[in-house]
Design goal:
mainly alpha; 14 helices; 78% helix
Length: 435
């Protein structure tokens, strides 16, 4: 058949071929190239599926099911993480490449007969990469910045107020002892303590980075220590008694230093009075920064606002004295400090889970918050995190009920009959009455 004879046949078949191509374009299943249409919210959902797959992979590795573990690791990457790659590569190309490499490394370790410890270490690193991926695909929103800024404000304001009250008490004692000329050494010591507290924060940061432990373990340890400090501070009655003893100790040191005229001793008293508060503050900010990835700017904002407010209140204390509602603020701060310690504890347990030190039992029916808000609140829906936070919250509630309700009733002496009551004492002379 000649070329001229082929032309009518081609003209008749061309429309049919174009129609078939169009039908295939619209009806064919999406390929990997279509994954670029995955929205960020859908990608975040896929990352949740990736986490579940990672957890299942590790569980099967521990049970010695290498083939099932390999199949799960492969499915978690192909069925879920591949859908995240294109939107993630736009905002974090290096992170995307690192995650791909880690997935491949884990599959290689499983097929290569690596030890459970080696596979566990790689999975711990992959969990961190998945969290970082979600942060790149999620906005901080309004809730998380507000929470961390409020926590930062509360920590510096509350601890700073304790230092201001100590300064006010010590300077008042010097004035009552007619030793006002020793004020400058005490103030100089307190200023040195503030500077030392700032240095301590960075020193702790360096020390933690050099310790031979994983980042997750160090974050958990820091958060647990900060939780213990906040737990102590929250029970204001016990802390108040300790603060009274602490103030009496400082006054005795001031008296000894004034008696011998030792400027160095007075500087040391001022330093000691403030540095304890500063050390506690450094620990709390370590935990706040550790779980404030992507929110450090808001932590600094809360710190700055807290320092401004503290300056204003300090001026009011020295000028207005008891007219400021210090007790009201400290009572209100107790509740917020309790909530902060609950958040720290939740984050600590979650870090231990990421490091595969504490078990992980997901609560699939529970709602999941965006990652930045989860960091701020310490809310991670698993049996271990929720149970631990519930126990701490129950301790706080039980302590509050006892201190503000049951304690007064249990310690109230029984009423005596009128005939057994002691006779009323005559009023003391005016010069002997307490002011």
């Amino acid at each position: 058949m000649t070329a001229a004879a082929h032309r009518p046949l081609v003209r008749r078949l061309l429309p049919a071929a174009l129609l078939a191509a169009a039908l295939w374009w619209f009806l064919a299943p999406p390929t990997r190239a279509a994954s670029g249409s995955v929205s960020r919210s859908a990608a975040v959902h896929q990352l949740d599926q990736v986490r579940n797959s990672i957890d299942q992979t590790l569980a099967e590795v521990k049970e010695g099911k290498e083939q099932q573990a390999f199949a799960e690791a492969k499915a978690g990457y192909l069925n879920h993480f591949e859908l995240v790659e294109i939107p993630l590569r736009v905002v974090a190309p290096q992170l995307t490449a690192d995650a791909e490499t880690k997935f491949a490394e884990i599959r290689g370790l499983i097929t290569g007969g690596a030890s459970t410890g080696e596979i566990r270490s790689a999975i711990v690193e992959l969990r961190s990469l998945i969290d970082a991926s979600e942060r790149h695909l999620t906005s901080t929103g309004v809730g998380a910045p507000s929470v961390v800024a409020g926590q930062s404000f509360l920590i510096i304001f509350r601890e700073g107020l304790e230092a201001v009250l100590l300064l006010s008490a010590l300077l008042g004692y010097l004035e009552a002892a007619k030793a006002s000329h020793f004020r400058k050494p005490v103030i100089a010591g307190m200023g040195a303590a503030v500077a030392a507290s700032v240095v301590m924060f960075f020193v702790l940061r360096v020390v933690l980075d050099t310790l031979p432990f994983s980042r997750e373990v160090l974050e958990a340890a820091t958060a647990i220590v900060a939780t213990v400090v906040l737990f102590y501070v929250s029970f204001w009655l016990i802390a108040r008694l300790e603060q009274r003893r602490w103030l009496e100790f400082l006054r005795s040191r001031v008296w000894s230093a004034v008696s011998v005229g030792s400027t160095a001793a007075l500087v040391l008293v001022g330093f000691t009075a403030v540095f304890r508060e500063g050390f506690e503050t450094s620990l709390m900010y370590q935990a706040l920064v550790s779980f404030g990835t992507g929110l450090v700017g808001w932590i600094l904002l809360g710190l700055g606002l807290g320092l401004v407010a503290l300056t204003v209140v300090a001026y009011g204390i020295f000028k207005l004295g008891r007219r400021l509602p210090i007790k009201t603020f400290l009572s209100g701060a107790v509740v917020l400090l309790m909530a902060t310690s609950v958040a720290f504890l939740g984050n600590a347990v979650r870090s231990l889970q990421a490091a595969d030190i504490v078990g992980l039992t997901p609560l699939h029916g529970w709602p999941r918050a965006p990652i930045f808000l989860s960091q701020a609140l310490g809310y991670w829906p698993s049996m271990q995190t929720i149970a631990t936070q519930a126990v701490l919250a129950a301790v706080y509630i039980g302590g509050a009920v006892y201190m503000f309700g049951l304690r007064g009733r249990l310690q109230k002496p029984p009423a005596r009959p009128k005939d057994e009551r002691a006779p009323a004492r005559p009023p003391a002379p005016a010069h002997a009455q307490q002011p």
